[in-house]
Please model this.
Amino acid sequence: MARMINLHNPPLEPEAERHYKYYQPAILTRWHQFLYVAGFLYPYAVDAKTLPLPKPLHVLYFPLRPFLWTWRKVSGQEK
Model:
């Protein structure tokens, strides 16, 4: 072992962060990989901050999730 890196104390070195980003999902079982990817499709609280909707329309956050995510990335709101 050449060196040890604590993954829970950001900021990480870019090389370590890139490796961990791909390593973590790779060690999961197929079912857990499916759940990991499906978690990105589930609306987050930041979606409600990006586009506030009335309570009866909250179900629309599911189909709008990719668009809201893209909007935050393009507009720079994510930082």
Summary: The chain has a mean pLDDT of 88. Helices lie at 14-26, 30-41, 45-50, 61-75. Residues 61-75 form the longest helix (15 residues).
